[in-house]
Amino acid sequence: MELTLSKDEQRIFDGELGQAARESMEILVALGKIYGAKKMVPITSAQISGVSFKTIGDAGLEYLGDLAKKGAKVKVQTFLNPAGMDRSQWKEMRIPEDFAKKSLLVLDAYSKMGIMETCTCTPYLIGLRPKQGEHVAWAESSAVSFCNSVLGARTNREGGPSALAAAICGMTPAYGLHLDENRMARLIVDVKCDLKTIADFSALGSFVGKIAKTNYPAFIGMKKESVSEEKLKVLGASMAATGSVPLFFAKAITPEWNIEDKAQEITITQKEINDEKKSLDSGLKPDLVTIGCPHASINEIEEVAELVAKKRPTCEFWVCTARKTKEKADALGYTKIIETAGGRVVADTCMVVCPLEKMGYVTTGTNSGKAAAYLPNLCRQKVAFGDLDDILYR
């Protein structure tokens, strides 16, 4: 059965609502045909990737500028993935000026389309939380994982152009994880070890992602009382980075639990966690420690502040977060404590889309499995991986 458009959808496709909307609908229709969608489904929000100039370059900036000139406007609540710098602190971060200027042009182009100037990979931490069963079009891999898995909302991992097209049209093709029959786990992961820290859950995700690849895992054995949203976000983020995992289940923790009859089963012990941590860690002393990949919650910022208030770290460090979360940290005094200890709370950005390699950094420390996966290739960094009390004080 071919993709069928409603009368209103056909009007957009025929160009009756303008050229930008027509071009966007053409993208959505093409995707729908490729993936066998029968219809479009309305969305309530969109998250756009391709925000850092580092990842989109001049060609991407030109594309955005062209769409904005054609009068493109988003129909639903739309926000951005992290940019390549904190727009308010880029000089203090020592971001190269040419990179900063191009980055500001990218943000300006998105703003002209009516997109919120919220640049974060954890929108759910600042109130943007779709309800279970709600359809959205999100692009950043860790946000997609959290949205599907922890919130029970529905999104495929959109590319930057497809998420933007969905935002402009207010809909997306109904295929993949928008459909009940595709939200099934094929891999059961029996966790037989005591996971405590962010680094522990990052290591678990890093290990399982390599095994799962495109299969969706279902975790058993996790203790609900020891699993926070912060730990689930790094678990999903790591699996999305080392595999291609946009959905996972955790028994009695996540809102859904759907397993195929012939699902494979693996067991994770403390040995696998320890070995994975070692494999991620160069053992080197970091030039820079970056915390908040995905973006740090206020609880994580509080933890950092309490730690560094007792003892000053031995290297420069950043805590990456959403601007709204930073404002809360400012008000609570956490930012001042961190700055007094030689650190910086940076908003809007993430270390993996920041031009670290042009800023003199060679080894970056992190407790994030996602960052550990991306930093070597995207930023040409060696990685110092571990718990906070390790990487901050090597």
Largest sheet: 5 strands, parallel
| Count of helical regions | 14
Number of strands: 13
Helix content: 40-55%
Structure described in brief:
This protein is an alpha/beta fold. It has 14 helices and 13 strands.
Account of the 3D structure:
Helix 3 packs parallel to helix 4, helix 7 packs across helix 9 and helix 8 packs parallel to helix 13. By secondary structure, this protein is of the alpha/beta class. The strands form four sheets. It has a five-stranded parallel sheet with strand order 11-10-9-12-13. It has three domains: 173 residues, Aconitase, domain 3; 93 residues, no CATH class; 111 residues, Aconitase, domain 3 (2-Layer Sandwich). Strand 9, helix 10 and strand 10 form a beta-alpha-beta unit. The chain is 41% helix and 15% strand. The chain starts with 6 loop residues before the first helix and ends with a helix. The protein is globular, with a radius of gyration of 21 Å.
Keywords summarizing the entry:
394 residues; alpha/beta; Aconitase, domain 3; 3 domains; five-stranded parallel β-sheet; four-stranded parallel β-sheet; 14 helices; 41% helix
Task: Give the topology.
Layout lengths: L6 H7 L5 H16 L5 E3 L2 E4 L4 H17 L7 E4 L16 H16 L28 H11 L8 H10 L1 E3 L11 E7 L6 H15 L4 E4 L8 H14 L6 E2 L8 E10 L1 H11 L7 E4 L6 H13 L5 E6 L1 H10 L1 H7 L2 E5 L15 E4 L2 H10 L3 E4 L2 H4 L3
